[in-house]
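> Could you send the Periplasmic heavy metal sensor prediction when you get a chance?

Sure thing. Input:
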Amino acid sequence: MFGFVFGTACLAGLFYTLRRGRWHHRHGGPGRWSWRGRMRGLFERLDTSPGQEKVIVQAADDLTEAFEKMRDELSATRAAVARSLRSETFDSAALTELDARHEELVANLRRTLRTSLSKIHEALDPKQRRELADMLEHGWGYGYRGYGRGCGGWRGARSY
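Output:
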């Protein structure tokens, strides 16, 4: 179960990074480009159509919203833990209530992840799904090979 939660967090982190990334463009900085502009590289690499891009963007929005709900719960979690430690006797009832809220949020995240991945799977063709799966499994730079001095292309590109 921990592996599933960890994998879910990694995938959502990828979407979060693509959507609100920490990449700094050398001419602009982080505030210059929108999150959709940052996803442009993903769309170009997958060679997606506008309809496919719309599905991917919606899936990223849904996942980001689910993670925002979890992030909003963080301050309440810290406050509940602090209350249980601060009291004269350990208050396990407050932590039990906290566990229930966390389980509900994680279950919502799982449902959102399954739904979003299903929509993305439906929208992409087999080659695009394979490329996206390779990027998720191995990292963004997977499949890149250099030719000579600084020139290069993605896996499958012609070399002359």
